[in-house]
Amino acid sequence: MTSLNPRQREAVLYADGPLLVLAGAGSGKTSVITRKIAWLIQERGVPARRIAAVTFTNKAAREMKERVQNLVQGGQSRGLIVSTFHNLGLRILKSELKACGLRSGFSILDQTDSREILKEILLQGESERDLNAVEAVHKCLSDWKNELVSPEEAVSQAQTEEEVRAAMAYSGYNRMLRACNAVDFDDLIMMPVQLFREQPRILEKWRHRLQYLLVDEYQDTNGAQYELVRMLTLPEGRFTVVGDDDQSIYAWRGARPENLDQLQQDWPALKVVKLEQNYRSTGRILKAANTVIANNPHVFEKSLWSDYGYGEPVRVAALRDEDGETDWIAGDLFHRRLQRGLHWKDFAILYRGNFQSRILEMKLQSLSIPYKVSGGTSFFSRSEIKDLMCYLRLLVNPDDDNAFLRIINTPRREVGPATLEKLAAWAGKRDQGLYHVCADLGLSEAMPAKAAEKLREFKQWLDSKREHCFRHNSLQAVKELITEMDYEGWVMQNASSPRIGEKRIENVWQLVRNIERMLEKQEEEDDGSSDLEAVIGKLVLMDMLEQQDEEDDSDRVQLMTLHASKGLEFPHVYMMGVEEELLPHRASIEDDNIVEERRLMYVGITRARETLTLTQARTRKQYGEKVDTTPSRFIDELPQDDLEYIGEGAPRNEERDSEMAEASLANLKALLE
Ligand code: ATP
Ligand code: MG
């Protein structure tokens, strides 16, 4: 407790009513949460299993759990719930299956699966010409669920043509999900709230179960999440939420920074603590952040200071083109690491869009600089991983028609579309799932005997795996599943090159290793649900929230989008592509929504502890053509006295730019030799 400042201590020690900690970046908000959990357990004697902390990503949850474990005496944190909102929702649904109309082993559909279902409903066999419309409807449904709007309400509220279309599809879509014993991502929050509204006794049970609730990154909660917290903590308001309105960067996904404001109205007894000392960054970095964000309108006034010294100027480097930009970053980073005796993991390179990482990755690879991309192209969106996940989903939930359709012919089993249509008609008449009816005796009347035989064989085989999985050894069963269907052979046959095939096979076994690790952990946690079932639920969620994010503390440069960097900190930060149309993003300029982009800039700047470097490519290829870029308006908004311009100021000089890039590479090579 001694290392906390007085305001932080006040926030930690206040547990008698609702508390909001509203403070800027790096002021110790997350630290307050971990300290408070430790204090509640050790000093207040609240059992760990009665405390739930909610964070934004699985990675953050993992870190928080570790920090608490380090703070409390051995074993005292057992049972503590630290999870994302969606994982908390999942936990509630799993314990209240019946009341929610679900059966055990229910599937959580990802975006692609939900879209497939919607496509079915909207297009009803028409060609796939109107995929944009499907996407728009999907967005509408998601927005409604995030705001707890029911299908009936949606129908009465809908105004635009799109909304009317979406509202019409909404209840059919929900019915379809329930028929497959499935929920979508947004249901994980909406369904618990509905359940609590309809069944006060169940709500009461959960209120009793969770005696204290803590929420990090509160500015990015949506309407449904707000309501979930409110219901669980009524009437006393035993919660601590921490947030920073200037770091709200998920409005496009339904987050409502107004929730901070709303909180004061809903909880008149709300205590607000503001933290002002930043313990992360040097004075210059902080000044840069404060100056930029001052251009946004503010509901809450905050000020932030640091006594970590003034520090080095913020560097702004303008390079010839995207090649020059990544060359320069790689060279500069390499140089600094040696010069200052740093580790690779002390560096982070942040960018606005995932596509920016590709060229950077190639550059780093060519220089043998180890790196790790977080939240990049999803591990789980790779076709081999989706295949295997669908097998696993079908193992735990035989009603999962989507999973069935994906894998019935992967690897090829010669089950054609005509057979599948007949199967669907058969299943529809009996009101059963596709997989269920595969072994029906009468099926051979509805289709050629050979086709029926293939389906039966498939079901018998997978049933035997299921049996093995739940009776004996899940991991063993998963491994057998992969080898018995000769998935490797199938991948190699279909890969465009042997190298790509091998990589894909490697990914499959990587997933198996992850499952193994998670199964081991599951044994420690033991929350009652079947092991494989729980692990698959977690994997699907991991996919949707942050994609691949293995527990990996090896020494690597960290690459990630600005969005993914929220809450994290690094000694040395590079921000790439600080240009108009990238940051701020073109779509935001067109929508006149610069404020959210400015917050993104603020998030990026405040990740840095010691040095910050912004880079810009003067030209960039767009549709195969070189286009001149303009430096981001946010660079103009920075305190100019604290900047050091590199490669700019003088009129454009391509020769000099390429000389610079070459010099840094030459430098690098010399160092390597
Ligand atoms: P963000 O808004 O980016 O999420 P935050 O407000 O959650 O930031 P933390 O991540 O909790 O801030 O803390 C920032 C850094 O300051 C961490 O390295 C943390 O260990 C350190 N820190 C927090 N409080 C103190 C303190 N009282 N004394 C020294 N260091 C502290
Ligand atoms: Mg934080």
From TrEMBL:
Transmembrane segments: none annotated. It comes from the Bacteria. Residues 283-567 form the UvrD-like helicase C-terminal domain. Keywords: ATP-binding, DNA replication, DNA-binding, Helicase, Hydrolase, Isomerase, Nucleotide-binding. The keyword DNA-binding applies. Residues 2-282 form the UvrD-like helicase ATP-binding domain. Its EC number is 5.6.2.4. GO terms for molecular function: helicase activity. Coiled coil: none annotated. The keyword DNA-binding applies. SUPFAM superfamilies: P-loop containing nucleoside triphosphate hydrolases. ATP binds at residues 23-30, 280. Pfam families: UvrD-helicase, UvrD_C. It catalyses: ATP + H2O = ADP + phosphate + H(+); Couples ATP hydrolysis with the unwinding of duplex DNA by translocating in the 3'-5' direction. Belongs to the helicase family. UvrD subfamily. Rep helicase is a single-stranded DNA-dependent ATPase involved in DNA replication; it can initiate unwinding at a nick in the DNA. It binds to the single-stranded DNA and acts in a progressive fashion along the DNA in the 3' to 5' direction. Homodimer. This is ATP-dependent DNA helicase Rep. It comes from Alcanivorax xiamenensis.
